[in-house]
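Batch queue: ligand-bound targets. Current item pairs a single chain with pyridoxal-5'-phosphate. No template structures supplied; prediction is de novo from sequence plus SMILES. Inputs echoed for audit trail.
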Amino acid sequence: MNQDKSEELYRQAVEVLPGGVNSPVRAYKPYPFFVSKAKGSKIYDVDGNEYIDYCLGYGPLVFGHANDTIIESSIEQLKLGTDYGVPSQKEIELAREVIDRCPCAQMVRFTNSGTEATMSAIRLARGITGRDKIIKFEGTYHGAHDAVLVKSGSGAAGKPDSPGVPNDATKNTILIPYNDEDVLKDTIDEYKDEIACVIFEPIMGNIGCVPPKEGYLEYLREITQENNIILIMDEVITGFRIARGGAQEYYGITPDLVTFGKIVGGGFPIGAIAGKKELMEQFTPSGDIYQAGTFSGNPMSINGGLVAFKVLDDKFYKDLHSKGEYLRSNIRDILGKLDIPYQVNGVESMTQVYFSDKPVYDYASAQLSDTKGFLDYFHGLLKEGVFIAPSQYECCFISGAHTTEDLDKTLNAIEVVLKSLQ
Ligand SMILES: *Cc1c(COP(=O)(O)O)cnc(C)c1O
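Prediction returned. Tokens below.
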């Protein structure tokens, strides 16, 4: 496979962009491919190679790239303005969509990224309770702000902290393993009067893909409610990917606050916080807990989200889910015939393969897998025309644009690559 132009662009990029990229996980060795265009399930590099894309912008592109309906509507919106600085009707409409779909949502505040959403949700919880401590799970990622940049999975996995994050900024962040009821109970027993909130990813998507154990989410809801601790479900990945009403509908667990991002803008930059009215109203200007953003609720992102929601109906999810199941069951068949230890984790359109003989249910168990072997798998797949995120600690996504032919080609590639690796 020829990637000469990508190599040359990377050489230029590292001169002007730290590490040659604008977000760290994009930089893999020896150099990432540079994109020329993308459409549907495919992404193309500057050397003319075509890849079936399972990275999908790290989650937002639930319809695949450059969806025609979103393109048309966005062109119309472009002509009407891209940033107003005053409220507009579509913000109400998108808020109503979120409220209609999502069990815990009675009010919504839109932001520009998932990072801003979780940062503001934590501030809201702290402001309302007057408490400083938060519980976060090892390996969850809630964006790049200080309070949650502790064992945070994804690009930061394995690094306990980032230089530049003051100890004071994380000293109130209590880290515990996911899927362990006893540790959760002991921690809440010890600190309950000091804890503002528990923030969690219902399906951990930043150490691969780690679903909740049966009963765990019910327990988490119960114990936080009993102790008046605000429960924040971070649905930046799962929101409107895993079900019409997100993971909270899927698992039947209603948190106090929820954060969204990725899918909610239909491919445009966005984030959102939603939840109970009495909590949400504490945000400025109705309350006094500060939250703001120049581009928040901008018409391009809001319009993108509105169009997306029109397409995200029950039929769409049924079709998307069946593709995930098809992919996973066939990957299991392929791996079952080979002499490679493996786990295939996944929920509906989220999937990850771990080369490990131990089940992966939290951060520590994810770290037992062969991450070097995973990179060989990644590079092998790339050569076969299949692009997955270049890290064991990311998740593979499927979009509505992926066809059975795409999936079969992918399975074929997976088989070729795995056979060469055993
Ligand atoms: C991606 C992600 C974020 C951060 O969202 P950005 O838009 O990248 O700031 C927060 N939480 C989870 C679960 C994510 O996957």
